[in-house]
Here is the input.
Amino acid sequence: MKIIKSATLVNIEANEVNVEATFTKGLPSFTIVGLPSDQIKESKDRVKSALLTNEYKFPPKKITINLAPSEIKKTGTHFDLPIALLISLYEDKKIVFDDIHIFGELSLNGEIKDSNNIFPIILSLAKENKIKNVLVCNKSAKKISKIPNINIYCVKNLLEAIAFFHAEDKKIYLYKKEIFKYEKLNINGKEYYFENFYENDFIDIKGQENAKRAALIAAAGNHNILLEGSPGCGKSMLAKRLPFIMAPMSLDEILEIAKLQALDLKEPDFRPLRVSRSPHCSSTKASIVGSSNSLGEIALANAGVLFFDELPHFPTSILESLREPLEDNSLLISRANSKVKYKTKFLFIGAMNPCPCGNLLSRNKSCRCNELEIRRYKNRLSEPFLDRIDLYVIMNETNIEDKPSFNSKSLHEKVIEAFKMQILRGQDELNGKLNDKQVNKFCILDEESRDLLYKATNNFNLSFRSMNKVLKVARTIADLESSLNIKKEHILESLNYRKR
Here is the structure.
C-alpha cells in the first residue's frame, strides 16, 4: 500500500489526510472511500481521462482509494493529483511520498489546475508546522510563495508530476519565492507592510474636523466608531477612506486576509490594505454572523473594517449578535455536530441619522418626526451594544464655506508613528483590542488623570467596560501626541467621545 499526504478543510482550518491506495485481484473497479464529497467522487472520471490521454494504461485491477482518517468529511477537487500519482506509479516500489504534501485538480487532458481550497489549507498547515515540502501547479505556487518556511515544487501537468518523482535532482522544480514590493517597517526584528496609495483620500471631505480627528484615533488604535449626522454630511465618505490610513500589517495579517478572500471564492491580492466589508441592512442574520459551514461578514472582516450604514435599520437580532465579537474579538458558533470559532478583530464603523427623516440636526430643513418616533428610532440601539463603541461622533451639516484640510497621506503618517509606539511598548495588539490585563499594564495614569477618570465615572455613571474604553482611547491619543504617559488632556478628549 502506498500513501500520499494531502489535507482537507474542516470549517476554516486544515486537517491532514493520507491518500491510500491498494490494487488487488478481482473484477476491475475504481472505488474511493473515507467520506468523500461529490467533488471527490467525480475525480474518478477526471483521473481516468487524464491517465488515458497521456498514454498510461489504467490497471485492470480492483483499485481502492482510502482517504484517512475516515471519520472526517473530505471536500475539494485537489485530491485529483494524489490519486492519479498513486495509480500511475503503483508498480514502482522505489518511489516514496513520505516527505511531501501534494495538491492539484486535474483537467481531462492531464493539466494541473489551482483550486480555492489549496491556499487556505497550506497556510493552515504551515502555521501548525505540519508541512515542509509541497507539490502544486504554477498558479498555486504563486499564491503560496508568500507563506514562509516551506519548499514549493511546481509542475504544469500530470506527466511533469510523474517525472518529478523519477528525477534525481528535484531542485529544478523548486519555485522561486516572490518578495513583497511594498513599503515596510522593521520593528524589533519583525516586518510590517503598508501602501502609500490612497484610492479614496480624506482631502475630498470638506470641514468635519472633529470627525476626521475621531477617524484618525480610530485608525491608530483600531477603535470602534459610531457616526451620527444628517444625510449627505459625509459619514459614508469617511468610512470608505478610513481603511487606507489604518496601521501597517504583519505578514501573518496579510496571509490571513488572503485566506479569507480565498474562502470567499475571491482571488487573493496579498496587498497590505485592510479589507472593508459593508453589508446592506436587508442582509440576513446568517449572512452576517455565518454558520459552522460558511463564513459571514463578521468573520470576513477580520483584521479589517466592518461598516454598517443606516445602523438602526439593521434587525435587532443582528445588532445584538455583534456584542460578543466586539467584546471578545472572536465568535463561537455551536451546532449539534460542530463548533467553530472565528476571529473578529475588526474595526467596526456604524453610521446613522439623528432621526427617521434625518433632519433633526439640520439648520435649513425642518424635522418631520415626533418625539415618539425619534425615541423608537434611537432605542433600536441597546445600551449594551452602545457600550461597546469607543468613539461616538456627531457630524455637522455641510456648509458651502467648508474647506478640505488633511489628506490621507498626512493622517497615515501620524497613524504609523502611533503604531510604532504601541509595538515598541511591547504590545501585540493595538490599543482598541487590549484586554483588561493589558489595559492595566499599558494604560498607566498619573494621580491627576486618575482622579479625573474617577470623577467622570461617578458623574456619567460609566460602566467598567466604558471606563476601559476611555482609557484605551486616551492611550491612543497619547500615542498620536508622542507622549509616553497618559495626561489629563488625553483623558478629557477621550471622555468627549463618549455617548452621553
